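Many introductory courses stop at the sequence. We go one step further.
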Amino acid sequence: MYDTFLTTSTFGSAEHPTDSEGLLAIHGEIRRYDEPDHDLSEDIVVGTLAAYRIFTDPAATSDMAYVAAMCEVSAELEAVARAIDLGEILVDLDLGDLLVVTAIEVAPEHRGQDLPLRAIQSLVASFGSRCRYLVIGPVPGDSDVFHRNGGAKRSRLERHFARLGARQLPTPGFLIVDLFDRSLPVFDDELPDEWPLEPFELD
């Protein structure tokens, strides 16, 4: 049996470091256990997840300085902001925050069991309230379920995450899920075997 345990660290904005507005860093451990009533110390960590929740500020999201302030605390998040037009996505949010998954790793011997998808479902269940979008990327990553070799493998992995209802952003290797659409598989217990991978466009 497997489960995902999530812990957080908080950040404030550069201008107001004590405000609740800002950034939440989320670290997840994918753990294997044998019995439902188990001792946590006996769990085996078989994978990890790294994510961020960006809290939107209606007074500031049109200002790229705000985006830069939110991203400067993390090299991974800064790389995401450079790769996609994160400022435009934040401006488009209007009524919600943004979840960004920057890395997922699963030990080779535990792959093939949809653990990355289940970990993202746990992330959305715990931290997706009031979030408009979930961004996943870069797909590929390195030495895990993401892979930098691109080509057919990258396409296969993008189709893998499409099973959550993810769509392709214009920048290759980045996917997005509209969390306001409650009919998407990211909210379902039973993941579909396949889901169409379509391009995403801001409304």
